[in-house]
Specification:
18% strand, 25 strands, alpha/beta, single chain, elongated, five-stranded parallel sheet, 11 helices, 33% helix
């Protein structure tokens, strides 16, 4: 009995049927079916597969035609239109590495702009469209075999294996003094290439790193433009420091990786300014530094801690102004003066100032609320040693302060309450402290300094129930 190919209309299984019978039973699902419908289902699938085969052949033929047209444009030195043809050819048949190779050759201007492979955003013109060179290279790598790499070397004299490409980019940046893009762009390109090598578990030698450091962080007229820390040598002490010829450091706004390799920034005596986009969280003062310059650093979001040495006698005006996350400062005996707004608009809230201190400038601590959003004066207290005040009649503070201090007034120890500023539609307005804020401030002052200012009926915060301690207990036992 003649049997023909068919497909079960119920489950789609490939079966054979007796075409002389009107019905049959599927050997897969066990369901009955109409023989004519089963045969028609098979013929329909075969027709679709044949159409698809013809379409693939047509696409392949069209892609080859586009590739040949692109090659003609290349011969005419028309890289843009050549790239447009190669792009369409690659889209039509993306599995052919040769199309991606020639597209890459065209959009990189015959590999003169090989640096563009290190950018995930930089685009080049390809006909009427734009393509990202990095993506083109990635597509080439995904489809290329040994023969395609040999073709690239034979046709263009370039080894396009990932290791060779990333090493060439780094070597070219290190060796060329006149690259068409900025040092910041060169830094981003070099860092990306180095990350790709690291992902391949490869590294570069120290000599190349030193060349890259010099190229990416140029020094001119005492100003160092720091664009990358990735290639800087990490000294034995683990801290970043500038050369003795540098007076000013300018860190790039979008400086990338590398800062995590250093434990701190070492501030040496030759440095006058370290800019705004400071990438380190800790500053340590180097031996020999006696004064912190005015306006040393401004609005750093990274800086969190500063460690002084006993040699530092003066902290200049606006030295750490608006470093909004600076919350820890280690002062040392030997400090004589803190300048105007030295730590203003920082996260520094409390500190015991050294007994050697003689002078505070205007508003050395506190906050405008502009950057930190903190204006609750009861959260601030900076304690001056009573012994320092007693032994130094020349003690003086200058101007109004937004934070409270303990100091000598008319030869008697007393509390100086801060000025409370409230933001209004017309700007900042000074207001007296509330009773609650005054009470909190007095409690903090007594806790830190353990003194009883004359003229105030105050006791230490751990005193009798009827004294300040009891008042605080009653105050904090209630909700605001």
């Amino acid at each position: 009995m003649p049997r023909v190919n068919a497909i079960c209309p119920e489950c789609g299984g490939a079966i054979e049927v007796n075409d002389t019978c009107s019905e049959g039973v599927c050997s897969y699902c066990g369901r009955s079916f109409d023989t004519e419908n089963a045969v028609e289902a098979y013929l329909s699938r075969a027709s679709r597969q044949e159409s698809k085969s013809h379409a693939v052949q047509f696409i392949t033929s069209e892609s080859e035609d586009l590739f040949l047209r692109g090659s003609s444009y290349l011969a005419l030195q028309d890289n843009v239109n050549a790239a447009g043809c190669f792009l369409e050819a690659a889209k039509g048949n993306p599995s052919i590495a040769r199309y991606w190779l020639y597209l890459l050759y065209s959009v990189t201007d015959k590999f003169k702009n090989i640096y563009s492979l290190s950018s995930k955003t930089e685009t080049r013109q390809a006909g009427k469209k734009r393509v990202i060179c990095h993506n083109v290279y990635r597509n080439f790598l995904g489809t290329a075999g040994p023969e395609d790499y040999r073709l690239a070397e034979r046709e263009f004299g370039l080894d396009l294996t990932p290791e060779s490409v990333w090493r060439k980019i780094l070597a070219d940046i290190a060796d060329e003094d006149d690259i068409s893009f900025s040092a910041a762009t060169a830094a981003a390109t070099a860092e990306f290439a180095y990350e790709q090598l690291t992902a391949l578990e490869l590294d570069i030698d120290d000599e190349l790193k030193e060349k890259l450091d010099t190229r990416l962080n140029p020094v001119k007229n005492g100003i160092a433009e720091i664009n990358s820390l990735m290639f800087c040598r990490v000294p034995e002490n683990g801290m970043f420091s500038a050369s003795v010829h540098v007076r000013r450091l300018e860190f790039a706004r979008d400086i990338m990786g590398g800062s995590e390799a250093f434990s701190a920034f070492l501030l040496t005596s030759n440095i006058e300014n370290i800019g705004t986009h400071f990438p380190f969280s800790v500053i340590k003062i180097a031996p020999g530094v006696t004064r912190i310059p005015d306006g040393l650093i401004y609005r750093s979001e990274r800086l969190e801690k500063v460690i002084f040495t006993p040699e530092v006698s003066e902290i200049g005006k606006n030295a750490f102004l608006a470093c909004i996350n600076l919350s820890k400062v280690e002062f040392c005996e030997g400090l004589v003066e803190i300048g105007d707004r030295a730590f203003y608009d920082t996260a520094l809230r409390c500190a015991i100032l050294p007994a050697s201190l003689r002078k505070l400038g205007t508003e050395p601590f506190g906050s405008s609320g502009k950057y930190t959003g903190e204006t609750d004066i009861s959260k601030y207290l900076f304690v001056i040693s009573p012994e320092s005040v007693r032994s130094n009649p020349e003690w003086n503070i200058v101007g109004p302060h937004r934070c409270g201090y303990i100091l000598r007034q008319k030869k008697a120890l007393s509390l100086v309450y801060p000025i409370k500023h409230v933001r209004t539609e017309k700007g900042m307005r000074a207001e007296p402290l509330s009773d609650r804020e005054t009470l909190i401030f007095k409690a903090l002052a007594c806790s830190y300094a353990d003194i009883l200012p004359g003229g105030d009926s105050m006791q230490h915060s751990g005193g009798a129930k009827n004294g300040l301690g009891g008042a605080l207990s009653r105050l904090f036992g209630k909700k605001k």
